[in-house]
Structure formats: C-alpha cells, structure tokens
Amino acid sequence: MSAVKAFLIEPMAGTIRPVTINLEGSYAEIKRLVKCDMIDVVRVSGFDIIVDDNGLDDIVPCLTQVAGAPTPIAGNLLVTASDRLGELADVTDTIEAVAARFTIVRPMLRPVIVVSERPGVIAAEIVRVEIFFDRSAPKVTEAVEA
Q1: pTM of this structure
Q2: How many CA atoms lie within 13 A of 51 on its CB side?
Q3: In the chain, what are the domain boundaries?
Q4: Interatomic CA distance for residues 133 and 71, integer angstroms
Q5: 3-class SS at 95?
Q6: 32 DSSP 8-state letter
Q7: Rounded to the nearest 5 degrees, what angle is found at the Cα of 46, between the Cα atoms of 44 and 14?
Q8: For residue range 72-120, what is the model confidence (pLDDT) as tens digits?
C-alpha cells in the first residue's frame, strides 16, 4: 500500500474532507496538513488523531471536542487509523460517521447596542458584549486537489 485514506478536520473553516496520505514522505505531508512543526497522536475510539503537539500552548480561536476524549483539541486534526503494527492504515468509517464524533466549539460575541435619540442627535453605543459558544459538527466537503 503506497497511500492511505484519512480525513482532515479544519475547525476554522468548520469542515471535514477526505485526504490521501502518501506513505513515502508522510511525516512532511502530515505536518503540512495539520499546519505545525511537531505532531502528536491522540488515540480515541479506534482512531489515531494527529494534532499539533503545541496546539493548546497558543491562543486559539476555537477548540474541537472529540467523543470519548477527556480534553478538547486545538488546530487542524488529521483523523487516521492504524494497523496491528501501529502503521498508518485506511480509515474505513464513512466521513459522515467520523464527523458526527467531533464538535467544533467557537466563542461568539453578540454586541448589545442601545440607540439614544436626543433632539438633533441619533447615537448608538455598545453597552455590553454577550459571549456564547457555537457548537457544531464539521461540515463534509469534497477533497481538494493538491
């Protein structure tokens, strides 16, 4: 086998898409997809999720919760599988089944605006900002040609 099927979750875009990882030169390709210099592998529910080893050390605009994982993960996620020897293998689950196990969590800001009308002046001001969390599964997209 010279290549394996995996799925790339890009939380900032809110998407999951199929990718093919060529086994020759796979480390460089994985780092390019995850967009990092150092990778780590989180094993959850039969998947090997390749992540940025330093992802939670930075300021992050969103996190991804994984069903069965004790903590959220930051950055792009490469969902892979492994064989009995621990080598990369095809993910056999459907992309929809994989997407359903992930929840992207984004903080959202809602400004509360008050309009004051005085003779000859109409003004608006932000009196406070409400913060809430948007939680959604990644949307399935098609593979992108390299």
Answers
A1: 0.85
A2: 22
A3: 3-106+135-140
A4: 17
A5: helix
A6: H
A7: 60
A8: 999 999 999 999 888 899 999 999 999 999 999 999 999 999 988 778 7
